[in-house]
Amino acid sequence: MKYILTADLGGTTFNSCLLDKDLNIVNISSKDKIRHYSSQSDLLIAIKKQTEYLLSDSKISFDDVIGLSIAAPGPLDVNRNKILDTPNLKLLSNFDIVDYFHKEYDMNVVLENDANLFVLGEWYNNFKNKDIVLGITLGTGFGTGLILNGDVFIGSNGMGLEYGQSPFSWGHCEENISIKFLREESARVFGENMSPRIIEKMILDGNSKAQLIYNQFGKNLGIALSHLINVIDPQVIVFGGGLSNAFFCYEKELINTLNDYSYSFKINEILISNSKDKEKSTFLGAGYNFLNKYKI
Hints:
The protein has helices at 40-58, 97-105, 114-126, 179-190, 196-204, 208-232, 247-261, 263-267, 279-293, and strands at 3-9, 13-20, 25-28, 32-33, 65-72, 76-77, 82-83, 108-113, 132-138, 142-148, 151-152, 167-168, 171-172, 236-240, 271-274. The chain has 296 residues and is of the alpha/beta class. Strand 1 and strand 2 (13-20) form a beta hairpin.
């Protein structure tokens, strides 16, 4: 059996996964935090150690691995194999990560936007009967990926749907649809910079001020998402990323805002789905993308 290594490099955490050639997950590493590393070289060494430990733990030899597929936040230049000046992974900005790992491992390496790979994995596993599927990843940033008739839409230069950097009244779109926004709002309301999980717990305990924070998050998300729905008119919208775990906290305000600003959403049966597979979908999409690119 041959295998594919995959690495999901986020703005906050990174981890790796080993899949077999049939896209079955063999093993997934634990998550490590980007903030633990202060230099590019330290982070690259940590990624290497993580993938190598994954193989060792699975008792798989490098000789049985056909390639490495990397998911990273955009903007990316997939034609030149570079993570560009991304605001969410600054240690690897303008770095040819494909060339680096190709030289380190002497194997084929591919790079793709993490939101693209997330929606590709969701489509492959759950929505193959749908032609237009929009994927949204929520966490350090606001990622968007789109499946059109079974293919990932990347645009003419590989940078399609980089909507998180678009201008809004509050600044870049993702500034108010992110972990940073929730932390800043908690500091404003409670005088303390809180993690999203703490705010979620406060909501479960009945704290109305905490709920208002997530209500505003849901409204911001709804405004941004209404633009995408009005342009694309998808059949399915599926959410992933760390903040999708708090979907119950902002779902009501999100739906209300979409009904206010998207006529298609209001009158049509556009499915809103909170991913059950989360990061597994990104790994699956990464594996599928590798096999598709190299026609394996």
